[in-house]
Amino acid sequence: MLTVGLAVLALGSVERAYAASPDPSLVAKINAATFEVVIPRAVDDPLTYEKPLPLDLLPYEERTDKYFSVGTAFAIGHNHYVTAGHVLMAAIGDLTGAPALRDASGHVYAIDKIEKFSLQQDFVMFSLKEQPKGNASLATNTKAGLNSVVYAVGNALGTGVVIRDGLYTSDTPEDENGRWKWMRFSAAASPGNSGGPLLDQNGKVIGVVLMKSPNENLNYALPIGEVLNASDSQAVMDKRMTYQLDVVEDTLTGTFKAQFPLPVSYEDFSATYLKLFYAQGDKELKELLQQQGNDLFPHGAGSNHILHETPELSVFPELIVRNRSGQWTYTGHELNRVPLSGNGYVAGGYVGHNFLIHLRRPDDMKAATFYNDPKQMMDLILKTGFWTREVGPEKIKVTSLGNPASNTTYTDNWQRHWKVLVWSLPYINAQMAVFALPVPDGYAIMMRMTPSMSTHDSLADMTALTDFFNVDYGATLAQWKEFLADPSLLPDVLKDAHISFDYGKQFSYDSSSISFSYPSTLQPIAADNVLSVGVGYYQDHGKFALQTGVIQIRKNITDPDRISIKRHIAPSSDLDDNFKEAWGKLQHKQHPFDGVPYTDGDEMDVAAVIPAPDGDAASELYTAFYATQGTHKPEAMKAKLKLLTQQFKVKSH
């Protein structure tokens, strides 16, 4: 049974609903005992916009209301109020304040103590700090008859309390193990009805309206007897939950099972619940990763294609995802690109729940400012129209989120150093969670927009996903110069290499694996050369490490003349013949790795295998490659290759 809650999560243009009511003598009492559940609207907005928000386009009631209406509650005795558990959950962790009740006259009452709570049965009972005048409450009936007339009472669509009639049609067991039965009824229920009373024809409460089925005209209520008989000393969580990480299709099903003493203040309830809820999410993530164990990348046979392929030089970020055949593959590609001034741009795509972004720093922006000012980084992304705020029929572009609410760092298992940033969006009770990895030309970014209550879980997920995040490093030599000057930005894979260049003279690369250098007579060395370093996942002394797999230097962004150094790994026995054939060509220095120039379209190429150090087993080999436009004499091409290889050294591992 697929069900959806009836809480109101946002307000917009709505139509007021009208329906038959019970005996007129009961209506006043029902209205007096039924309340809206409201959350304060944001008073201070940290966001800035392209123009003043046209709030006059909103309905009068919405633009003047200081509260969001999220559901319904009702009184069933002296200072005892009931609503749906998920209505309260919509408020927990709210950025603007605690939930409250509001009566028909607009008076707002703060919640005092949480007295009963069941996550699985989806209800909460609480008291108020101030009692409404008259102390109206509804009587209860725990023995309602099937096929009798019922009335669904609620704050339908946030427009105020309405009463609609129908029939109590049937009972149906709850999904997990039939611990209780839901009441099914045909009276209409809209978003906002959640937590309202289901009444019999005499105006007595027989259930709490909770959810509806999207595939049939029936709604669901929890029998009021379940509320009355529930523990008044313990908040109870005993609900099946599932967990999935974006890089695997497998899900982990577990049970969120916990209790804590009641009654407590709303503030203490909220803090205790969130602590337990977050711990449950952390536990499920840990169990999922342990359950997958050695099948996760880079372990297991499904990883071998990536482990033995030469890195593809992708400066757009990707996630390494396991497909249905069990193979790990690079997933994610650029879907759109929006230019910025100074040759900057924002390229975007997505995988799973994550926006993936490559932000190229504008040339006229100082690197020191760019990498140390998260507000400016986000402002650049927002220039693309990435985020808008809907006001009536208009979508107003957000131009700044201000300074982040939190700014921390994280180092992943590949020894890359991330900036972890969270911005608050109080007007929708949400937060923007960002993992930003510095790269030579800007940032490779993973981003989520998440309800504030879920920010902890999103950050935990994204932290785990950093180990499956793939990006290569590419920029002009001018950009590399500024990037290399700040060691705090560098991943260990780049700290291992000493990259130096003298414009018009020489380029040098020296790491623990290889070293090479070449003069400007091979290829002009200038600030607009594009250096790309492709990184791969290699076994190093029994452990996996991120290491350099490709080094390419293009003449510039428009001229494809290039130098390329590639690392090749002997294929494992389970890989297909294409891998083995390619490795055989390398071992025997066959074309195109025989040092003989050849024509490829409108360019000439020449490549050679670099001999392994004496005594080393040929488990990996390097190739040196040079390409230039036009037609050239073979002797000239061989001379170019010699300039590239004569200083090339492969070091023992």
User: What sort of overall outline do the alpha carbons produce when their principal axes are compared?
Assistant: elongated
Task: Summarize model confidence as the mean pLDDT.
Answer: 91
Low-confidence runs of at least 5 consecutive residues: 7-19
- Give the biggest sheet: 7 strands, antiparallel
Q: Proportion of β residues?
A: 35-45%
N- to C-terminal separation? 59 Å
Strand order of the largest sheet: 20-21-22-28-27-26-25
Oligomer: single chain
What value does the Rg take, in angstroms?
A: 32 Å
Number of helices: 13
Give me the secondary-structure category: alpha+beta
Q: Approximately how much helix is present in the residues?
A: 10-25%
- Say how many strands there are: 40
